[in-house]
Amino acid sequence: MSLWLPPDRRVTTDDESAAPGPARPALFLDRDGCLIEERHYLSDPEQVALIPGGPAALRRARDAGFLLIGVSNQSGIGRGKIDERQLDAVMCQLSDLLAAEDAALDAFFYCPHAPEDGCSCRKPAPGLLEEASARFSWERTTSWVIGDKLSDVDLALDAGLAAALVRTGYGREQETVLRQRDATGDRVLVADDLPAAVSAILAEACR
User: Which of 8, 14, 15, 30 is catalytic?
Assistant: First the structure.
């Protein structure tokens, strides 16, 4: 698994350990199809396009006390479709776009492996959440995973978190499978997009 940092936060010493203080709720956010529009094996930073309303939704969540942590399968690296340099360029663009909207993520963790590698970090395996736990103090029972695939839902449920499936990206087709599994309920919600998911999560937090 890997932690991506923007250039201005890259250091040679390990100063990214968990900060002291009480645990906070977290939103664990898938990248492709959730934070940004889906592009198959995205390698060109010029093709990065934020989901409309996404930055404002992230600001609302942050203001409500949530950590904002990206968690993404990037199997294009393991499959040889993209390389780390291209991923870095795409992530720098995404980071710049979010920063311009005052909606920067607290961290972004990704799995670079192909499915057949059998790693512990490819969603729905828990490795990315475990890495986040080593660096941040977050509260499991009030945290959510938001994404457009069943792997995001399963990551959440297997780890004791709530899940939000968005209909952007691959979400609409994944919703059909989710409902066939009869897996919706108090711990799983389906929303049109990231802003709608955040609105529902914040409403739930206020109950």
Answer: 30
Contacts of 193 (CB under 8 A, 6+ apart): 51, 52, 53, 54, 166, 167, 168
The CATH number, out of the four listed (3.30.1520.10, 3.40.47.10, 3.40.50.300, 3.40.50.1000), of the domain defined by the range 23-205: 3.40.50.1000
Asked about 148 being catalytic, the answer comes back as no
- The whole-angstrom separation of Cα 140 and Cα 161 is 6
Of 62-71, 78-87, 160-169, 182-191, which range is least confident? Answer: 182-191
Q: How do residues 18-48 score in pLDDT, each as one tens digit? A: 555 689 999 999 999 999 999 999 999 999 9
The active-site residue, picked from 8, 32, 96, 154, is 32
Has 32 been annotated as catalytic? yes
pLDDT for 19: 54
**pTM of the predicted protein model:** 0.93
